[in-house]
């Protein structure tokens, strides 16, 4: 990577779930949590703030959210203040911008906050916001939201490769089980056996309730800084070593076969190449399991298994602790919930805490050095990938 | 075509005097509209359906043609590429020299699902409804849309469908698919 080395030096999340709290209150709450998690952080040292927020205009009737967030956090950014919007990948988009700002020398210490308030008295309002993620005047009137799109991915995957509902349920069971190690997860202390998952109601056939991530309120925050300042904050930095994105299409007419996510193939190759490693070198991955089928296709597009064998990979526990690669140890989007702007930031918090050996033993990856974080957005038309390395020299 | 069609306005939309035909007033020309004495403002909310009139979209002829029962799109006069959705500029050669062409009426289901919960505002009363990706016969196009005619659990991949234009209830037009088996 060119430019200065950049690392995440700490992070925190709020409780994810159906929260009796406003957008601004969630930001204040994560500010308090960040203060506790990164005691060396001083407000005056923070020169930049990046806010990952997908749809505050629709969910919270609020624009111009970056200065609003700065005020909630008690920050007065003086280099870069901006909001990043990339739908479900808004959080990672904000981290990528902070990374670029620090690597280039424009910023020394940046805070990234991801936040979404999705639960409203009328969930039809929230569903409307989700529909606006699509090419609204063309796909929207037909009722396009994420569930029917990913349901078609699952239907084609079942047709072409024989993937089964039981294999989908294996993904959901794993991620919900991991979420039971994470008190901040929406589905903490809620158990989902594979049998129970297969009896839940259909949302968009063949996807059932347990195949879909939830509408969730929550916020997450991380601090990034340059190699010059890392040691002021932590002994266990998570160095940004690679980054890649690929935007393939937007209108659903251009979604191709549905089952080959070449955008992820390209984005992950770029991120891994920049880091100088291969997928087999990874110790953990936070993958965007907005739906169970997503994680299955992601196994394949990342090259963890051949195309068509993602379902078997899931059912055999190869993405579990003790498998080929630990995937979504914090509980994923399925177990933690999916507050759009917060998700990508919460995944980075998990990577930082895994490197710091600060997570409960039931989900601690043994001695991890390399981690990959993936977010897709919209109808899997954009893929965003970052690769992190633990500690060591800059 | 559009000049002979009675112009219906979206309920609640801003009502203005009909502008001159688009052919003589390209929206990008910056020519101000003639003063209107009938300008009237009403409360107005955006919804999922497009604003289809010439004062809002350069693609208004797409909706005029839907009103005649024709689903159409644009084709580039320079490189011959067929677009979906219709466009005002070709994405490959970036010319605005496009022409309207009718799409075939028949196609086949590539993939489908149904919305059984979680529909957006304005579509909740339609639940359950089927949606799918349709390969249009004789074209490289695969269109997403609503599938009518049979309940979702009686659909199958490969089933034949035809295109259909419909009035959404306030004068605006849209397209969908209907099973033919």
CATH architectural arrangement of the largest domain in chain A: 3-Layer(aba) Sandwich
Strand content of chain B: 25-35%
The sequence of SSEs of chain A as H and E is: EHEHHEHEHHHHHEEEEHEHHEHHEE
Question: Could you tell me the mean pLDDT of chain A?
Answer: 97
| Helix residue percentage of chain B | under 10%
Strand portion of chain A, in percent?
15-25%
Largest interface: A-B, 40 and 37 residues
Lateral strand order in the biggest sheet of chain B? 3-4-5-7-6
Largest sheet of chain B: 5 strands, mixed, barrel
Order of secondary-structure elements of chain B: HEEEEEEE
Supply the number of helical segments of chain A.
14
Write the layout of secondary structure elements.
The complex is a heterodimer of chains A (394) and B (181).
Chain A: E1 6-13, H1 23-37, E2 48-52, H2 56-59, H3 65-73, E3 80-84, H4 90-103, E4 109-116, H5 123-131, H6 136-139, H7 146-161, H8 165-179, H9 194-199, E5 202-204, E6 207-208, E7 218-226, E8 238-247, H10 262-275, E9 284-286, H11 292-301, H12 310-315, E10 326-327, H13 332-336, H14 340-355, E11 370-377, E12 382-390
Parallel strand pairs in A: 2-3, 2-4, 9-10, 9-11
Antiparallel strand pairs in A: 1-7, 1-8, 4-7, 5-6, 8-12, 11-12
Helix pairs in contact in A: 1-3, 4-14, 8-11
Chain B: H1 60-67, E1 72-76, E2 98-102, E3 106-115, E4 129-136, E5 142-148, E6 160-167, E7 173-179
Parallel strand pairs in B: 5-7
Antiparallel strand pairs in B: 1-2, 3-4, 3-6, 4-5, 6-7
């Amino acid at each position: 990577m060119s430019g200065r080395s950049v690392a995440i030096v700490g992070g925190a999340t709020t409780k994810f779930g159906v929260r009796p709290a406003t957008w601004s209150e969630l930001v204040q709450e994560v500010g308090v949590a960040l203060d506790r998690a990164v005691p060396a952080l001083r407000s005056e040292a923070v020169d930049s703030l990046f806010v990952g927020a997908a749809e505050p205009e629709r969910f919270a009737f609020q624009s111009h959210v970056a200065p609003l967030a700065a005020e909630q956090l008690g920050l007065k950014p003086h280099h870069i203040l901006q909001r990043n919007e990339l739908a479900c990948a808004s959080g990672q988009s904000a981290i990528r911008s902070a990374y670029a700002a620090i690597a280039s020398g424009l910023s020394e210490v940046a805070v990234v906050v991801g936040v979404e308030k999705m639960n409203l008295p009328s969930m039809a309002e929230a569903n409307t916001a989700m529909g606006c993620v699509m090419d609204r005047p063309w796909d929207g009137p037909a009722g396009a939201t994420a569930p029917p799109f990913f349901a078609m991915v699952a239907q084609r995957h079942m047709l072409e490769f024989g993937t089964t509902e039981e294999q989908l349920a294996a993904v959901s069971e794993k991620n919900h089980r991991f979420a039971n190690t994470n008190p901040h997860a929406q589905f903490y202390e809620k158990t989902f056996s594979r049998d129970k998952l297969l009896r839940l109601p259909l949302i968009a056939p063949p996807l059932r309730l347990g195949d879909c991530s939830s509408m969730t309120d929550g916020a997450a925050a991380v601090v990034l800084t340059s190699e010059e300042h890392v040691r002021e904050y932590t002994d266990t930095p998570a160095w940004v070593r690679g980054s890649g994105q690929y935007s393939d299409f937007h209108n659903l007419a251009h979604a191709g076969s549905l089952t080959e996510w070449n955008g992820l193939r390209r984005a992950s190759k770029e991120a891994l190449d920049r880091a100088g490693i291969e997928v087999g070198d990874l110790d953990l991955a936070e993958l965007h399991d907005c739906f169970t089928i997503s994680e299955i296709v992601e196994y394949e597009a990342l090259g963890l298994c051949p195309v068509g064998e993602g379902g078997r990979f899931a059912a055999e526990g190869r993405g579990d602790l003790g498998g080929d690669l630990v995937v979504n140890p914090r509980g994923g989007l399925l177990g933690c919930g999916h507050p759009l702007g917060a998700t990508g930031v919460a995944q980075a918090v998990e990577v930082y805490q895994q490197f710091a050996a600060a997570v409960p033993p039931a989900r601690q990856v043994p001695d991890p050095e390399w981690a990959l974080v993936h977010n897709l957005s919209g109808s899997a038309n954009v893929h965003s990938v970052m690769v992190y390395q633990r500690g060591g020299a800059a | 075509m559009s000049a002979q069609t009675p112009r219906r306005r979206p309920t609640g939309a801003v009502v203005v005097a009909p502008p001159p035909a688009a052919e003589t007033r390209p929206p990008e020309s910056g020519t101000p509209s003639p003063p209107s004495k009938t300008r009237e403002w009403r409360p107005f909310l955006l919804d999922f359906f497009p604003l289809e009139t010439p004062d809002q979209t350069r693609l208004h002829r797409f909706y005029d043609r839907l009103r005649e029962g024709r689903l159409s799109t644009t084709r580039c006069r320079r490189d011959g590429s067929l677009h979906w959705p219709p466009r005002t500029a070709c994405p490959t050669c970036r010319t605005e020299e496009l022409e309207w062409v009718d799409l075939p009426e028949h196609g086949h289901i590539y993939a489908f699902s149904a919305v059984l919960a979680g529909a957006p505002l304005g579509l909740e009363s339609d639940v359950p409804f089927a949606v799918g990706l349709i390969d249009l016969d004789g074209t490289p196009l695969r269109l997403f849309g609503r599938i009518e005619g049979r309940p979702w659990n009686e659909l199958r991949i490969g089933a034949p469908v035809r295109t259909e234009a419909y009035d959404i209830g306030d004068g605006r037009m849209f397209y969908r698919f209907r099973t033919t088996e």
